Amino acid sequence: MRESIHFVTGRLAEASVREIVHQLSEARGFDYSIDVLPITVAALMTPKWLMRHIQVPESATRVLLPGYLQPHLEEIRKHFAIPIDCGPKDVRDLPTLFGRRRHRSDDYGQFSIEIIAEINYAPRFPVEALVLEAMRLAKEGADRIDLGCEPATRWEQVADAVKRLIDLGFRVSIDSFDPWEVEQATRAGASLVLSVNSQNRSLAGDWGAEVVVVPDTPADFEQSMVETAQYLSDAQVPFRLDPILEPIGCGFSESLGRYLTTRRMFPDAPMLMGIGNLTELTDSDSAAINTLLLGFCEEQQITSVLTTQVIPWAQSSVRECDLARRLVAYAVRHRIPPKHLEEKLVMLRDPTANHPTPESLSAMAAGIKDNNYRIAIDGNEIHLMACGVHLRGTDPFEIMDALMQMPESRNVDASHAFYLGFELAKALTAMTLNKRYEQDEALRWGMHTRIERHHRLTRSRPKSP
């Protein structure tokens, strides 16, 4: 039997609902009916009020309610014999219920890549400051704290710093070519040393720690790295291999090839990639770079990455890597593209950017019977609407100037003007970046989104004289 879905909405969203549902029904092949209830904003519906006004036709096989009723869904379901579900809060998200969003299995979130977060110039930190930084990095997803030393200066307090972190439960690595610093750090509990080549491999057997093997130079990596790996294997020193990732313009593509070659030469050996050479040295937001590199690592079974977050555009790299390692692990495990699975990694733009049409906003404006202001964007212009008011443009200042010259603006006090200015600024940002805008909701910045309290639906308005 052909599915017949009964959509429930409020008056102001009617035009948008009809437009989107009509397109969906043609694309997905279902019948539908639309119940426009006598309320302006769907967010104000309550279960009792809904039950007094909803009218479900006998032909309906399913009911979709506004997303704001989700907390009351089980209570509402008791009154119906057919499936009742809640759609999204924003009607523009309706397409995601009909195949636009990829299903995630219960195993999403599993990962195999270890994140080693480096604290650069660690000797410059007092011990307690190191502890606070380590706590912050661990909270963001780091599995191990790497203490980056300074080549020209010996860190006399390295053992105290390592011991303090170990006592607090952190796994610690030491990043130094100074044998004395490495010896002090490993005696204090550091379990990984970055890095070892032909110059210092003879000392590695005394450290009692796993080491990261790097080539003497990129040009001789096959010979020097193989020789060092063989030396350590004979000495029974555990190691990871890192052929060294190089920046764009300095041999980036060649360095990726070295990782492929290393994996073919050592099919079962643990490997590490230092990804900061790309994120820190490329004028680009780091999230996409981190995701691509971790995807490469996941496919090649490179099970640890070393990252830094010093440069401003890479200062959330640890969190990005934590999300990315889960995303790429799922994609590789299920052999699917990593698409429509992790919205938190989409920050500058939005996963979807459906805007109401100018025609639907004009229909909305014509149906408004109260003096509360609604703000929306159609992708090209900002719309400010209330009873008898429909202003549109691209400059929030011009829109506010036009509003304040209208008789209807008598209900705009200082607090209300601040609210409208704040929302208009958000609308301009959304329009500039082709992001979605919904009044009184935070703009979506992926993992950086800051949830906002609702103001439009709760604040009281001054009465008109």
Radius of gyration: 29 Å
Helix fraction, binned, reads 25-40%
**Percent strand:** 5-15%
**Uncertain regions: pLDDT < 50 for 5+ in a row?**
457-465
Number of helices: 14
How many extended strands? 15
> What's the order of the H and E elements?
EHEHEHEEHEHEHEEHEHEHHEHHEEEHH
Overview of this structure, please?
The protein is α/β, with parallel strands linked by helices and 465 residues long. The protein has an eight-stranded parallel beta sheet, with helices on one face. The longest helix is centred in the C-terminal third of the chain and has 20 residues. The radius of gyration is 29 Å and the shape is elongated. The two termini are 58 Å apart.
Task: Provide the descriptors you would attach to this structure in a database record.
single chain; 465 residues; alpha/beta; Rossmann fold; eight-stranded parallel sheet; four-stranded parallel sheet; 15 strands; 14% strand; disordered C terminus
